[in-house]
Predict the structure.
Amino acid sequence: GHYDHYRDNMFLATIDEREFGLKPMNCPGHCLLYAHEAHSYRELPLRIADFGRLHRYERSGVTQGLTRVRTFAQDDAHIFCRPEQIEAEITSLFELVGRTYAIFGFTEPHVYFSTRPEKSVGSDEVWQKAEAALDRILKAQGADYTVNPGDGAFYGPKIDFTVKDAIGREWQLATIQLDFNLPERFELEFIGPDNAAERPVMIHRAVMGSIERFMGVLIEHFKGAFPLWLAPEQVRLLPIADRHVAYCQTVARDLSASGLRVSVDARPEKTGYKIREAQLQKVPYMLVVGDREQEAGSVSLRTRTGGDKGIMALETFKLLALERAGARALDLD
C-alpha cells in the first residue's frame, strides 16, 4: 500500500527497465525483517528501531528550513506485539515521550487523535477496532486530546504530539500509530500458545519525529539560547589584556579536559565589547580575567542574561558548570 500512496513523493529512477526508488519510509522494510524468520509469542513484543536516512520529494513551495526537508533521519521504530500487549506498549510510549520532552523543556505538548482518512487500506471492522483501542488508551491516560477527523495514516489511526515554538507556531513531532493492516498485507505471523499461527499488531512510533525538524523546533523554542548542556560553546574566556591570555589558555585547557566546550577571545578589543558580543551570540558563561583573577587563580563569572556573579575560584566554577551540564538543567544558576 505504501507504493500507491507515496509514489508521487518519491525519488524514482529506471535502470535496465527496472524501477528503483530512494527509501521514503521504514515500515515495509521492518515488515520484511520480521517476516524473514519464524516467531513465537514468547518473543513479542519485538521492537525494531531505525535511524536510517529517508528521502521524500517535497515540492519546492513546501520545503522550509529544517522543518520540512527532502532528506531526513527519523528516530523510527516499529513494535510487533500481541493484541493484549497494545495498551502496555502505548502507555510505555506515552511515558517515553513525556520524559524526553521534559528534558528539552517541552512541558505541555498537545495531543491529537487522528482517525481514518478518506484514502486508506483495510476493512471498516479493522479500523473501528484500531480507533477504539487508541481512544480507550487515551482516556485511560487521562490525556487532554483533540480529535482530528480523517488525518490518520492510510494504514491506521494515530496519536500525534505537537509543541509550540517561541512565537506560538505548532509543530508535530512525536507520533504513535496503531496498525492492524500492514501485518495482514505482509502476511506476518507468530506462533501462539496453542501452536496455531496468529497475526501480530504493528505499532509505528517516533519520539522526536525527524531529527532535522526537531532541531529546527528546538532552535526556535530556545530562541538560540540553548541550555548549558546543549550549547555548542558553553564557556568563553575574556582576557582583559594581552598579559592575561596565557592564563586564560591554561584555564581553557583545564575546563576542556573536564568535558566543557570552551574558547578564548584573545582579540585586542575592549572587555565590554567582548562581553556584549558573547551575550549576543548567546554563550552561557563568560569568564572575565584580569590581574586579580590571574594572581588568585580565579575567574569573574558573567552569564549571557547579563548577570554578574562576581569572582570565584576556578574549581568552584568548574563544579558549578559540570553540575548544571550533567543535570541537563534548563537554567544557568
